[in-house]
Amino acid sequence: MSKLIKLAEEQIISAVTDAINKNIAEGVFIEAEIPAFKTEIPADRNNGDYSANAAFMLSKALRMPPRKIAEEILNKINLDGTYFKECSVAGPGFINFFLKQDFYAEILLDVDACGDKYGRSDFGNGKKINVEFVSANPTGPMHMGNARGGALGDCLAAVLDWAGYEVEREFYVNDAGNQIDKFALSLDIRYQQIINGEDSIELPEDSYHGDDIRVLAQSYIDEFGTGLLDVSEEERRKALVEFALPKNIATMKAAMAKYRIDYNTWFSELTLHNGGELKETIDILTKNGYTYEKEGALWYKNIEIQTEILKRQGKTQEYIDNLELKDDVLIRQNGNPTYFAADIAYHRNKLEKRGFDKAIDVWGADHHGHVARMKGAMEAVGIDGDKLDVVLMQLVNLMKDGKPVKMSKRTGKAITLVDLLDEVPIDAVRFLFNMREAGSAMDFDLGLAIEQSNQNPVYYCQYAHARICSILKKLASEGIVSRKPSKEELTLLTSDEETDLIAHLGALTGVIVNAANTYDPAKITHYATDLATKFHRFYNAQRVMVEDEALMQARIFLCVCVRNTMRNVLSMLKIETPESM
Fold first, then answer.
1. Environment class of residue 478 by beta-carbon count within 10 Å: exposed (0-12), middle (13-18) or buried (19+)?
2. What is the pTM of this model?
């Protein structure tokens, strides 16, 4: 929350606490420990700008009805030196507080003073957070899940940054293991088919059948010819992967750049294998007693570590048995490590080797069962499992005219991330994918995304920004020179539309902190749409150009503060803020 809102809430708590203590000292209340109570903003501002539930929290200890307690608190409360002009008792015992106009004036002055940093805070105390998202296999095109994950992960990283954390964005490149072996096989078969004919060799059912594999194989032939037919299968596949994989990774990097995502790190899984960290991690698991050999493979004792953790949490054995936990293979019979083994080493690298205070992964909801397993594995290697958090993301349904869309008109194939970015404005993609919390399935309306109307949320927010720019230009064209009003002049903003809009401006920092705490950037898009709504309501109800020069300057200043705040919010999400539309 902004420092002003935080101070106002602290003033309520202090004033109420002092009043309670006075009542205890005078014998009105019996001796009792004052429990924690909270302040909140009532849904109906006519009931006050803030409300405190102290009377309800005290009722049991004082053996008095909340209404009576609230009335006695009011008899002793002193609001001198606070942002509040008065308070009253409502209903069964709520204590409602009403702000002075000074408070709203100071919010606007704070917005102006902070400029493009308004909304930022030091809440995170500079703790290091790694946000890993998208991390698509580099063996084929990126899909709709990657599209949502990209917008969600990047905007979450931005929210954490604004909340005062030191944030790094990371893409984990799965360039080792089974999927690369399958990639090599698929390239090899297509390579041979192009040279010797489609019927010369069959492409296995469980390999990659996409046209992109054929294109890569043809590209190799165009550049280097057919000489790989004369070398061993191992050498041929190695050469094809070394040619194709960098091209796919470069394509992914270009797509992410187009999506306005700038990663600090593209982390290669292969480095874990080649650098010895994977073996080192497995050795630690073995040393800690969490591995065993069976049927020529090395297994991880997932059941044992999960049981230890769940029992610490107070779960019963019956509850644990119902989970049907299973152990996991770390090293296969053929000596190759599993994806899970590499994943343990990778997360250990982030949390132990590179020293991040927290690792946040954005995964598809189909990885739900992997979360507890990976957090448990961190415990097994000696790392606090709570240092790893996972945001699970539901699927996206592409819709147009109320009907599902699965194929691209251009290619006739499933719509990829690149297709989407070619067809829909990037501003709309980034905003709309963050309109719902990650755990909610969502319909992405292609028609709405390109619509230039107030029905399109990102257009609606951008229009509010552009409308203010237009208002300011019109005033300037009529010879009205804006200036910074005094605090006294800003107290002239007394209408419900004005105070509601200013209060919303003051809430931005708290909304960002809340979004960071809950890993939910949707709170930011909702804030932006609410800001646009409250501005349009103000502008439709109150004229800016009025005869009272002081009031006019105060309203111009309010418009500027709204414009700058909208710019900060949209810029945080890497969304453009046009000055005309």
1. exposed
2. 0.91
